[in-house]
Amino acid sequence: MIDPAVIxxxxxxxxxxxxxxxxxGLSVHLRDRVRSHAVVAAGRGAGVVEPVDPxxxxxxxxxxxPTAVPRVVASSLARYPNAVVTDVGxxxxxxxxxxxxxxxxxxxxxxxxxMAGSHQSGxxxxxxxxxxxxxxxxTPRPDNPDWVVETARTLASVCGxxxxxxxxxxxxxxxxxxxxxxxLVSSLTAARxxxxxxxxxxxxxxxxxxxxxxxxxxxxxxxxxVAANRAPIREQLVALRDDLSGLIAAxxxxxxxxxxxxxxxxxxxxxxxxxxxxxxxxxPVVVQIPDAPGALGRLFADIAxxxxxxxxxxxxxxxxxxxxxLSIDVAPDRVDxxxxxxxDRGWGLRS
Amino acid sequence: MIDPAVIxxxxxxxxxxxxxxxxxGLSVHLRDRVRSHAVVAAGRGAGVVEPVDPxxxxxxxxxxxPTAVPRVVASSLARYPNAVVTDVGxxxxxxxxxxxxxxxxxxxxxxxxxMAGSHQSGxxxxxxxxxxxxxxxxTPRPDNPDWVVETARTLASVCGxxxxxxxxxxxxxxxxxxxxxxxLVSSLTAARxxxxxxxxxxxxxxxxxxxxxxxxxxxxxxxxxVAANRAPIREQLVALRDDLSGLIAAxxxxxxxxxxxxxxxxxxxxxxxxxxxxxxxxxPVVVQIPDAPGALGRLFADIAxxxxxxxxxxxxxxxxxxxxxLSIDVAPDRVDxxxxxxxDRGWGLRS
Lengths: 351, 351
What we know:
2 copies of one chain form a homodimer. Helix content of chain A is 44%, strand content 16%.
């Protein structure tokens, strides 16, 4: 039903879709404005660079940079008269509006958003497994015939993704809330750090590093995303400003501060997490690890040999010395056993 | 010089100080309003519960809840006439002001702040290694005799900490910037999530989880910290509100959005990090791991056997299925080798 397929744009996402479809035995034709990208993607198993007979194409996946998507979707609808055309853009309403403005009949176009995050943007790290168990949002509309929606579902299924269907407007509101808004908050918070005395940053711990981690993201990409989804992002920013003004005005009142912190607790709990286990019931055991090949392997082998299940873990790097600390979360009844084993085996224990 | 020592308050921090001093061969006397806490701490090797001859005590470490610190410091200065008295409170100016108001001569008191973060608050998880390579801030004053400052330095050194000395006011400004302000931002951001439609949270990825992780912190503790450090916290919040208002007003201008994102990049880079290696030069390889004892151990053993150095790693849990993904960051030239090994050894590769 989706064979042969055409991928237009062979960056990480496009090339990875190609790898997944090719791995499933489908024939995939790769197109890219920069032909060498398509050649690299083909070299990673994403498909072939030879063109397809346009009338025979069943599916076109448009994976070009955000601002180019509407134009390429419209031209693909014209070029491949029998194909379903979908895209992988991270904002859906603006693309849809522009596609409708550019075409007579957009019923063969259905919006898509595979949520596979990565800092890498080229085809060099493409992999068929990129979408495995990731969310792939589809935004079907009343004017999409059933076979169009089914074709898009098949694409996401073959890629191993978990399909979520919602309207373009609902999608854009949701990503504004859970992705675009947190990105801007992280950037604003990190921007404050750029203004404080350098010596003060010696006191920075893991908390501020977590809050500002995504502030290291690529500005060019985020400028495009923000431009495409301004309305729901503005709504979140204005709501934050209201909450922030309320907190500033009430900073002397413990009840008001407590209310903000309690609502924060509630928000964290609302996020879907690992089932059945409350992270705050786990105890961290912190081990010093030499920054050398094999060290982690030997440590985990020791842990495995003792039958201790690791519930979660993270690595912290010492800013001054070439060593790292591994924080291993385990159930409270395993803490003493793990500590004893770590000491006995000669690893450096911190807590 | 610091022997015998008295620990007043045997929660996680107090008991861990006791463990570190005891491990160094010093005699430590434990006191707690709740005697059973002191007994538990003694059971973990933090010291003894028998009282010390007050005139012989050389060092008193006050590790009681924040609001009780000034009173306990003042009474300790009176009770132990020859001892240096220090504390472990996370805000210093307010404590100092109150201690000065409560005592004739505060010259034997020197403020301290060991920055050992943990969600655990009881003595059950106390460990001598809690402070190893952590920052321990001391806030010496002109009226402190040299021997008082030296005694506090010895305490931090014996605990294995890295000493940073600054004034109480500088300390409080620094922790407002790098700890208290990010905490409130995280709480405010998470609080917004509590108000959005539940279904929208299905699209939440790792970014928003990182930004809101510390929003799960204990409100009672943070209400006390905020109350003790309002002025510098307010300064940060007001600066954020100004930046936020500017962003809202200029959300339609790509240059203004770009500026916020660029300044965010700069702030992240300003944080002290692992030396010599730029994290954005690393490539993540994501492996599916069964949530069972030993799985990680076997995986890391396989990696070690192939001589691949892991630069960083993190675990993501699948919200719906009982599986986790391990994201392993390696140098670009090791990616293909690691992927091949993972496939060959039968692990599930995602990207």
